[in-house]
Amino acid sequence: MLQTQNPANDNLQVYIDGQLLHRDAAKISVFDSSVQGGDAVWEGLRVYNGRVFSLDAHLDRLYDSAHALWFQRVPERDTVIDAIRQTLLANDMRNDVHIRLTLTRGRKITSGMDPRLNQAGCTLIVLAEHKPPVYPESITLATSSVRRNPPMSVDSKIHHNNLINNILAKIEANQAGADAGLMLDKDGFVSEANGVNVFCIRRGEVRTPYADYCLPGITRATILSLCQDHGIPHQEARISVSEFYTADEVFTTGTMGELTRVRAIDGREIVNKHGASVLERVQAHFRELTRSGGTKLL
Ligand code: PMP
After folding, report:
1. Would the pTM count as exceeding 0.90?
2. pLDDT in tens, 227-243
3. What Gene3D superfamilies does the database record attribute to this sequence (predicted)?
């Protein structure tokens, strides 16, 4: 599974530092913290019928991440929302749109790690692209030897741009011929895949790893509350890789790909031994939420 360039995105207008610029002209300073140290936070959002899904939850996570990283001069919420609106309007975008919202610590006066060298910024970037959900009908996973960062090194609650740990897992998955890398915690329990959260369904119960090591995904939270609302048994748990191998169904969640069935992990086919698909029920409820929910910006 490899995304290709969509010609509809050839002339994108990108919001950067208060301006809307053609994608070829939208540039970032070599002194920007994101270049210097991956020192930035981000959100991926999706637009359905002109409405941004879970906008408040995404902005809350963005502001929490920026606060945890001691960002200064963070733009007001209204400024960020207006930047998203301007970008969608400039590109005439309403549907099948993915937004990558990035907030960097800003420009440094000279190269270096110290955040006190940041005397301008933050830098706000809104990159909206025509991008339907990126995953095919089903995907495969390969367990990675790279562990997901534990909170004693980098807390997964901070949605930062230091993605090397996950990129290494993705490289392993590519080498193994799988679509994504399954990342474990330091004790060997499943944490998440390199860019999405993971769920398994066993005997009708929907389970997902605690958010101790994984990103507390917005889609993940939506699925847990949707199960609650519709009386579908569910729990967060410590789950081993073999419990994933032997589950009835496995799926991933994320804004970029929505809900995607996993058909095999490390070559072990996921076989449903206990009746009707619970995933299909969950998917139908999720589709209903994206059809009717979201914040109208246009
Ligand atoms: N895990 C990781 C590592 C991610 O980067 C993402 C995407 N932001 C997710 C999970 C899914 O999160 P969400 O449902 O908020 O898009």
Report:
1. yes
2. 999 999 999 999 999 99
3. 3.30.470.10, D-amino Acid Aminotransferase, subunit A, domain 2
